[in-house]
Design goal:
It is a single chain. By secondary structure, the chain is α+β, with helices and mostly antiparallel strands. The protein has one domain: YaeB-like fold, CATH 3.30.2310.40. The chain is built from three helices and six strands, in the order H-E-H-H-E-E-E-E-E. Strand 5 and strand 6 form a beta hairpin. Helix 1 runs antiparallel to helix 3.
Length: 99
């Protein structure tokens, strides 16, 4: 099994991808954003300012990649969890509101 990134390395990598715009929003994430009334600016804010929820990270055996959970509040106070993974670019897999 691949080794998960250390938290400091993960957050640096996420923030770098957000800053450079080297990310892809999956069709699933777009659907969830629409259903949950979450704008991309909210997602990107959480990715830039949130913290890792290591207990929510998951290794996808089928795709042989880690999926990382980032949790935070938007400027508007919306509590979100964003799941990302990495290929050449960062992939935003899904977005969920946390109650």
């Amino acid at each position: 099994m691949d080794t998960a990134l250390k938290t400091s390395e993960l957050l640096r990598k996420i923030r770098d991808h957000v800053q450079k715009g080297t990310y892809i929003v999956s069709a699933h994430a777009l659907q969830r954003q629409n259903e949950r009334l979450v704008d991309l600016k909210h997602v990107l804010y959480v990715l830039k300012n949130g913290c890792r929820e290591e207990d929510k990270d998951l290794f996808d055996i089928k795709r042989q990649m880690w999926k990382y959970a980032i949790h935070g509040k938007t400027i508007d106070g919306i509590n979100l969890r964003v799941i990302v993974s990495f290929e050449e670019e960062m992939i935003i897999i899904t977005v969920m509101r946390i109650k």
